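User: Hi! I'm working on a homework problem where we have to compare a predicted structure to a textbook description. Could you give me the structure for the chain below?
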Amino acid sequence: MERGFSFKASLGEVGDKVKESSLGRHASGILFSLGFKPFSTESEPKMRSSSPIQHIQTPYRKSDSFIFGSSPLSLDKNPGSELYPTHDHFGLPLKPKDAPLYMTYLVKNEPMMAKQKFLFEKAFPDSILHEDSESIAQLMLTNLPSLISKGNSIPSSYRGLVWPTITSAFKRKKGNWRSSLGMKEQNGASEIFEMGPEISALDLQRIENAKEQIEKDIDRTFPAVELPSFQQNLREVLHWYCHTNPTLGYCQAMNFLAGGLLLFMSQTSSKVMLAMIVEDLLPGYFTENMGGCVIDTMVLDELIKLHLPSLHTHFSGIGLSMNLLCTPWLMCLFINTLPSTSAFHIWDLLFLYGSKVLFEVSLGVLRLHQKILLEQEDPVEVVFYVNDWLNKTWDPAHIVNAMFPLETKEIDDLRAKIKIDLENQNRLKAERKAVLDLQDQSHFEQKELLELFEKFSLLCVDRKELKIENPEEAPREIVLSSAGILEYKQFIAIMCSVFPNSTSSDPEATFARFFTVFDTNNDNSVDFRELACGLSLFCKGSMDEKIALCFKIFDQNNDKMLQREELCQMLLALHRMHHENDAGLVKEVKFFVDVLLKADTQNAGALSLEEFREAVFMHPFISKAFRVEQTPPPLRKAEKKPETLNNVEEWVIMDDKNNSV
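Assistant: Happy to help. Predicted structure tokens:
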């Protein structure tokens, strides 16, 4: 006979034998305490309506009674037999090995469950549910902490009303949030509908991709659940969220959250609650890189380090990360780790007290088993042991008693600190990649670029905020433009650090013209790209590039000629940058320039670029300034220029145009 039909149908098969058994009497009492009539032959009872408020509804389920097998109930039989329940009272299927534990929990907690239902009916009578939503919310927030303490859960028939009311979902349905999620008023009730056709092609593609993944996950979400149209409702809830938030779309684990909500409330309320969980309660958890979850696993690691230092040291020693152990707990809110009775009690606490409950449960479970976990030397064994205990914990009281009390401020402070640390790490990775990518525009090696950027970072100003989720995909120009700039004083300082010999003289006289030429966009500052490209030409470019650059730097009046004073400034600057200062250098430079200009008969008192180039290789004094051997131009070996640079003359011409503007 097929397993998994309603308890009253089973009793119709076995007759008075079950009624007379002690377990049958216990089960009858439990069902009655929840408002069910398990021994009635009347039509199936419905769960108590969660609220007269139209937009929060409780779904009709196939049977609101417990689901049992077809034979008399007994805890003495083989768990794999037909004598044990096949589904829990939420309609979720039970594994054969879990059935005895589940029944033991029900029998043990019958008085508590009956009392809990009575207390809720007393605290929230039907008469007050007709009041305005704010009054109901305030009443619940006042009474719930005492009602659900010590492992006492919210009765299932109340969750469809209580959960949305005590969270931000209810307020969001009343406010402007309605328009952003596609909600409209109809006959006084809020109805949610899918977004219209005004959507970008990119978002449409995202939605289609999300729907493909949803279809793969639908059948894997609470299979064999005892709830009519469950899979179709689940599909519609997830599709709705894809349309209302196509940027985020769908992420695995959202299916279990939506499925858990649909066990207690209507499709409409489930949509709003899902949006609240994804966007408010667990922000960042369901993005592509699951950044919010990553931060929270790191927060948990810090909490363990702070409150359970021995365990933290042991976990670090065996290589166990909280990401491996706790990510499934956080992403699915324990629904795939704890039995349904305990998991939904965690949800009760979570919606009332916020996400700190996840940390209190996680830390508490680890503290409870700390002694045994310290003996485990294999991280896989730790994960297996903890999850095995959680899988068997049907009584929420065991979880509540183990919870480690924490302050919300402590968690928020850790989140903020870790978030900043991660943003800085991502920024450093993006900047490193952008800096190394400049190798194709400069003559510097990777190591030299990184060393230069380190100097730049210490001196730069106007560093802009940059938030990056994926450093590998961050555009280079955006990253470098936010890295800061060097104004005149900072530029002089970094040039002095690159050329330490120049500090013994007047550095401003040496580097003032470099600042003007390196500033290719004429914004009165030098960014890192400008600095790296300019310095690489000056320090490691070909001799032709160096000569052209120096000519450009010291041709102050842009007349394509180096006058006597300009020649003196150039030779003084180059000698001071590359060689130790000489007390007689100024006199020597002036004497040499006079001799050089007297020998020039074509351009009285000035040198053209070609004349200056010849002088570099013909005169030892200039060769020393450029740190090259005295070799005539025709005998020099040709130097290959980088393909990306073409030739330095084009670069100089571009600067000429910028300066003229």
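For your comparison, note the following. The longest strand covers residues 183-186. The CA atoms of residues 184 and 190 lie 6 Å apart. Good luck with the assignment!
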